[in-house]
Amino acid sequence: MSTLIRIRHQLPGRTRLYLKNEWKPGTIESIVRSYPGVFSATFSTETNSLLIHHEPSIHARQLVRYVQQFRPPVTNDFSYNRELLFGVTALVVDLLLPARNLLGFKQLLRPGAILSLYASRNILRNGTETLLHAKKPNADTLSSAAILASLLKGNPRSALVILFMSTLSEMITELTANKTKNYVRDIMNLDISTVWKVDRNGVEKKVSIQEIKPGDEIVVFEGEKICADGTITKGSASVDESSITGEYIPKDVHQQHEVYAGTIVTSGNLHILVEHVGNQTAVSRIVKLIEDAQQKKAPIQSYADQLSERLVPLSFLLASAIFLTTRSWDRVLNMLVIDFVCGIKLSTATAISASIGKAARTGALIKGGEFVEKLAQLDTVILDKTGTITKGKPVVKQIIPYTGFSEREILRYVASAEEHSSHPIAEAMVNLAKEWNLDLPEHNHEQIEQIVGHGVKAVIAEKEILVGNRRLLLKEKVEPAGLKFISKLENRNNAVYVAIDGHVAGIIVIEDAIRDGMKRTINQLRREGIDEVVMITGDKHQVAQEVHQELQLDQFYAEVMPHEKARYVRDYKNAGNTVMMVGDGINDAPALAYADVGVTMGGKRTDIAVEASDVVITSDNPLLLGEMVQLSKKTMSTIQQNFTITIAINSIAIMLGAFGAIAPIVGAAIHNAATIGVLLNSTKLLLKEERVQWKQPSLLPTTSLVESA
């Protein structure tokens, strides 16, 4: 059997399989639902995943073995190339064996007519089934009537033109859908995790995350990502929980502490008792988001579908009216072969699909067509500061030396004392020392003391070094004159105080640097019609004001609590604005949910923020914000173009057909050519070249990295 089946994940009562074969989704789902104890089965063609809800006692391997017993029915295999070949064969046969002496229903016995009916069987089946079961006609019902009328009139070639053009339109639509699938799968394949599992004999073995189940013991080493939720049974470490909490400062954990999938061990090793697996992996989350996105249509797409449904009966009414007034079958055929349905419905769906696919290729996951439309209507953008406007990683902004000390001297001693620390602020100071190529004095590890909540006390080159907060310097009783200097600068945010041999040496000012390209992004948003760009942050007013001035934002709100962020978003919406909120942390989730479009951005985005948002940007490139707005506007412009082209061309063709100025075969060609044209117009969204990611220009050698006091 040509079926590839893999277990993506399993939880009690819920299993997701990766399944690739030649079946149709309905067939796969019906087979799995027939297994005793299975409640539901849903297959996604976008991700080739099968989500099954079942009795908790059923194991995924049982379902795999059951599905592998079946073979996909050959009769369901569909190929556009084969359908086109049938059409060409029918055309050749009709040219060689015209059988023009047959009249009335006997026309259906012509060799060319028989082959035309077979070649059109899928259109005829779909059009008939919809009419019988749903009690309303669709575009295929209209095409079926036109094909049958053409054959009864003795003109199989008109029927074949309809078939050729319809098949070509479907091929273009499927090509766009397949490209979207490929881009989505590219994202999904970026983060396949493995983990070290401890067996019963205590031996560590590297296995796939899919093999891990609750109750297993795993080991996570320094620098590795934790791949499951669980409780620490042995070891201690610093863990970067920014993917959960949004905080960039690592958390110290030890035995009995809980840890979560997606967090990273920055120092130390951990033995973890697994409690939850599967749904916490990045791949599973993205699969769920993609599948949810397929169910969400843009309002304009729903409007196109509804309009198309209403226009089908109108075409039949026009055909009836023309027959009653003219008794001309040619004119009646024109009313059946020329309609607005295909162009409006297919081109709108294709444009939305192409837009989502293009966004996925650039690293942005849009959760549904409705958000493509809303992105095009934005006039207000609200940005969270930490981790969104800024990098979420501290850097040294300034070194302010006190009397008798220099910047380089202060940094040499501080970097030596903090050289082996995994704290982000310590890393920022050590990194700057490396950039300056400083020769660090040697130190003895035994003479370095970490004072929890205060800082570091060390002996470096026979000098006593203090690096930490003001409380540390007060505790160690440094000389009073230096403390007055510190008091004058206490309003500085994230300041690290340094003392050498009991004397204040200076202050190192730490900042969370603004992302490269953020200023360019804001300018790009303004060019796309955004009237107001606002920043909301829980940080201090002075820090927020500096960022506001540097980026020239329209407004900012500082020292805002998480629940207040949602209130600000709601207030802007109530004022009549269409609002996009951009954030990354758990404290942004309520505001993201309230916004017209919620966007999470960056590698440190939290799970709950992803869940609450409508667009997920997987990279740290802020320029994608402007590109998503630009792409959505192009998509809506393309849809409007398609509406105009479809209505204009088909209206002219209908008038010409009603007056008998064109033959049915010409009418069919005009109608389907217009449909193919608007489909190609939609598909062009996928074909545009990618913009090269913009990078911050490197500093000139003469540029000073810090400001001296």
TrEMBL record:
EC primary class: translocase
UniProt keyword list: ATP-binding, Cadmium, Cell membrane, Ion transport, Membrane, Metal-binding, Nucleotide-binding, Phosphoprotein, Translocase, Transmembrane, Transmembrane helix, Transport
Spans through the membrane: 643-663
Organism field: Guptibacillus hwajinpoensis
GO molecular function, one term: ATP hydrolysis activity
Chief place where the protein resides: membrane
Gene3D superfamilies: Calcium-transporting ATPase, cytoplasmic domain N, Calcium-transporting ATPase, cytoplasmic transduction domain A, HAD superfamily/HAD-like
InterPro entries with a match to the protein in the record: ATPase_P-typ_cyto_dom_N, ATPase_P-typ_P_site, ATPase_P-typ_TM_dom_sf, ATPase_P-typ_transduc_dom_A_sf, ATPase_P-type_domA, Cation_Transport_ATPase_IB, HAD-like_sf, HAD_sf
Lineage start: Bacteria, Bacillati, Bacillota, Bacilli, Bacillales
Membrane topology: Multi-pass membrane protein
Name used for this protein in its record: Cd(2+)-exporting ATPase
